[in-house]
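Re: Re: token formats

Sure, here are both.
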Amino acid sequence: MSKVLIAEDNPVNRELLRELLEARGYVVVEACDGEEALRAIEETQPDILLLDLGMPVLDGFATVRRIRENPALAPLPVLAVTAYAMQGDRERIVAAGFDGYLSKPINASKLFQEMERLLARRQSAKAGN
């Protein structure tokens, strides 16, 4: 089963995501901020990253920028999970290097639909190499 890294500073939101994902059989790794997420990516090599935008130490935008600048990490699918839900936010988030966007509160069916889309895209990209 796929390994998912959750980078979220709010423990309640992190727990909710973990429980949803584990119930579906995903292996879950957690980080509390962007710096922790970058270390966890190197150490655990997740298949997908669920990344909050508003975190201390290193926010989601800075984290995704570092991921995209590193050729070894750049292919990692990164899904923004955020409270930002204003008009134009999705476009700004995708333009910043995220592969997808989900607004909080999380809708479980949309979460899994978006994750499956990104994981399938990654699999087909790997198969093409």
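Second one below.
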Amino acid sequence: MKKHYIIVAALASFLASCSGEKAIETETKEMAVVETPAEEWTDLFANNSFSNWHKYGGGEIGNAWKIENGEVYLDVENIDRQAGEGGDIVTNEEFDNFHLKYDWKIAQNGNSGLIFYVHEAPEYENTYNTGLEMQVLDNEGHPDAKIISHRAGDLYDLIVSSEETVKPYGEWNSAEIIANNGKLDLILNGTTVVSTTLWTPEWEALVADSKFKDMPNFGTFKKGRIALQDHGDLVYFKNVKIKEL
């Protein structure tokens, strides 16, 4: 953590009479050091801006992604797919050990996700070819919810939530992802719903038994970008903040 040291100089002066003349003596005293911690959390959408993000695969973010009053959303009704609008967006920066906080809400029958440890390279067409996903879903309306490990809060297609704490569609959910030296915790609405360790033989067995088994290097990168998924449904995100650990 960075510390800012502020040295306060106190100026004291006094008059003295010496041989009929006035002299001014000034002395400077060093005061106590005040430590001010640097801001730890980074708002990834500060000032209603996409300046920390770009479209996966390169290029500027199309008009389908919008920010209003601190809320980021995918305007699915006005997406021109042929013009390249929409698509997943990713952070410009890569992260290894981090604590991510964000709020999300999904439209009725909607599906989306937040994907992390994304390795952006030409050989990987999609963010989910390398990155892990914390599922965003309307559990009551989307057919994906019928598949175990595809429900909201799950580590998608890998680990089922220990309990279901998701709120109905249209309501805000509070989520957290803590990844630190291979230890991974997913938190939904204040409850840790997934806790696991990455990059172990047990982790490799999970991947080998999932839909990602034929995706080379899936879940192997220890540093990567964070992505918001365009799954074709209206989804909202806000208060997306990260702290490096």
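The chain has two domains: 3-36, 40-244. The longest strand covers residues 9-18.
- S.
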